[in-house]
Amino acid sequence: INIAREGNEDYLFSLLTGYEELPAxxxxxxxxxxxxxYFHGYYIGMAQQLxxxxxxxxxxxxxxxxxxxxxxxxxxxxxxNPWMDESIMYRIKTISSTTNIxxxxx
Length: 106
Known about the structure:
The protein has about 110 residues and is mainly α. The chain has helices at about 10-15, 65-80, 85-105; strands at about 35, 45.
């Protein structure tokens, strides 16, 4: 989901936290739709999913809607790139090996 849309994490954050009351100049949405100015077409078929204090954090973090949205987006990013941790380890090994070889050859 994160890599499928232009704007990536910023778009998802706006989409998850951007639900608003319907402005007076907008037409009424169809049944089962909600108004979200960040969604193309403004009417989305998904009701607001995240609310303040709807999650309990073990470390005492205050569960604001924005914090919950950031956590959801980070999880989606992690699941969309399952090879990322392994890739970072290979980069670290490559850089350290190259540094050692350059140091020894100097």
